[in-house]
Amino acid sequence: MDERDYDPPRLLRTLPSWLLNRAAAAASAQVNAALAHERVRRHHFTVLLALSEGGPASQAALGRRLGIDRSDMAAVVAELERDELIARERDPHDRRRNVVTLTPAGAAALARLQQRVVAAQEALLTPLSADERAELARLLSRIVEQP
Amino acid sequence: MDERDYDPPRLLRTLPSWLLNRAAAAASAQVNAALAHERVRRHHFTVLLALSEGGPASQAALGRRLGIDRSDMAAVVAELERDELIARERDPHDRRRNVVTLTPAGAAALARLQQRVVAAQEALLTPLSADERAELARLLSRIVEQP
DNA sequence: TGCCAACGTTGGCTCCGCCAACATAACAGA
DNA sequence: TCTGTTATGTTGGCGGAGCCAACGTTGGCA
Fold first, then answer.
1. Which of A55, A64, A69, B29 is the most buried (most CB within 10 A)?
2. What are the pLDDT digits (tens) for A36-66?
3. Which residues touch strand C (CB under 7 A)?
């Protein structure tokens, strides 16, 4: 895009929904670049993270925890299995479920990703002081956790 | 989704990019609901707004001002023309260009939309005080206007 | 004149969120 | 025990959004 001609209407510049959208887009660009190093996308990262933190779980349980649809989860988990970052087995106690487990390779990839993703936040938030970053996180949390 | 089981990893809850994403999704949901009353989407609204504020312009100029790709702009403008919210004519001084003009019906629709979109912000920001809303806008602006 | 750039259009791609339908499996109630 | 309901994973599809490539038309410039 020709950045020099970029000049949106005044209302948009002050509209919280517009600002959130653009900030989120900038954040996604940074994060996606970080995730691309391991050839994964956002959902793959969050699934690896959830497994690392909560231990093995079924696809449905992961989806509920992370807010990912069952159908999307099936695709994500299939790709992670193909890349051997997770292992999948039918749960012997409930043969409807797939028990998803983090492999050592998955844990290693997660460690690398985590580092890059955290670094991406830094790039995103450079204009803000530490206090301002904390304040931003606080305000966003209140919006997100709206009853 | 079963909201009661929603419980993402700790890291995500504090990750600015994650918070931005979820807040932007909530904002989009509110704004899209507002825009649905006139059967338009975000780009249609911003194009109407830009025309109202800046007067007639070519599709390419609108795209540069708003950060919308030429191909997407072609589709948006075609839909707005079909709904008679804008008029399109070849520019007699440069027959490559389409001059896009807001119609009275377009201006009226924009007025209604603007009201609903502003109201949607209110719904989104209810958890925040006036000072906090201003602070949020200030912080987001600094991120968005990053050099 | 001939070459290059801008414009609008069409078509395509990826990512994300969501929904519908289906077969399998577990379970609860009569 | 049988029957209907629910949960699970899978496949396929849709729409919004951002992005890019290619094409014909038109303008401008050397």
1. A64
2. 999 999 999 999 999 999 999 999 999 999 9
3. A 28, 32, 41-43, 67-72, 94-96; B 1, 21, 25, 58-61, 63, 70-71, 73-75, 77-78, 88, 96-98
B54-79 confidence digits (pLDDT tens): 999 999 999 999 999 999 999 999 99
Residue B58 sits at the chain A interface (C-beta within 8 Å): no
Q: How many domains does chain B have?
A: 1
Residues 10..39 of A with a Cβ closer than 8 Å to B: which? Answer: 10-17, 19-28, 30-31
pLDDT tens for B45-59 read: 999 999 999 999 999
pLDDT at residue B1, rounded to an integer: 46
Question: What are the tokens at B134?
Answer: 């201003």
**A130 assigned to some structural domain:** yes
Asked if residue A89 belongs to a domain, the reply is yes
pLDDT digits (tens, 9 = 90+) for A63-110: 999 999 999 999 999 999 999 999 999 999 999 999 999 999 999 999
pLDDT at residue A1 above 50? no
CA-closest candidate to residue B100, choices B88, B83, B112: B88
Residue B3 lies in a domain: no
* Nearest nucleotide, CA A60 to C1': D8
State whether residue B105 sits within 8 Å of chain A by CB. no
Domain extent for A48: 40-142
Question: Chain B neighbours among A 68-97 (CB < 8 Å)?
Answer: none
Closest CA to B1 of B24, B28, B27, B22: B22
Does any domain span residue B9? no
Beta-carbon contacts of A137 under 8 Å, excluding residues fewer than 6 positions away, are B14, B16, B19
| Burial (CB count within 10 angstroms: exposed 0-12, middle 13-18, buried 19+), residue B4 | exposed
Q: Which of B2, B28, B120 sits opposite A64 (nearest CB)?
A: B2
User: What's the DSSP call for residue B85?
Assistant: S
- Residue with CA nearest C1' of nucleotide D15: B41
